[in-house]
Amino acid sequence: MPKVLISKLKPGMKLAKPVKNESGMILLGENTELSDSLIRRLENMNIENVSIIAEAQNEKSPEELLAELGQRFIKTENEPHMGLIKRLFEEHIRGMTP
Predict the structure, then answer these.
(1) Alpha carbons 12 and 56: distance in angstroms, whole number
(2) 0.90 exceeded by the pTM?
(3) Which superfamily does CATH assign the domain made up of 3-51 to?
(4) In angstroms, what CA-CA distances link 46 with 2, 11, 22, 57?
């Protein structure tokens, strides 16, 4: 959940954490979708940055991830520890499929 400067916010982004004022009062709740008017309000309240929910970018299929993994470990997979690490990543990738 990246922190984003108020000046970089765009309508449609969602808050990953509540926005609070100096006294701890919640101004905007978690998962609030930002609009132009909400962004202006944050600017007027001198809020510097907020945590937003990162957007999924170019999700790859498990097959694509496994192919990339194979390429990354091609030179070191015969080393005992690197082979183990590669197998753990393979298991994790295979476990991601629904």
Answers:
(1) 14
(2) no
(3) Molybdopterin biosynthesis moea protein, domain 2 (3.90.105.10)
(4) 19, 18, 11, 30
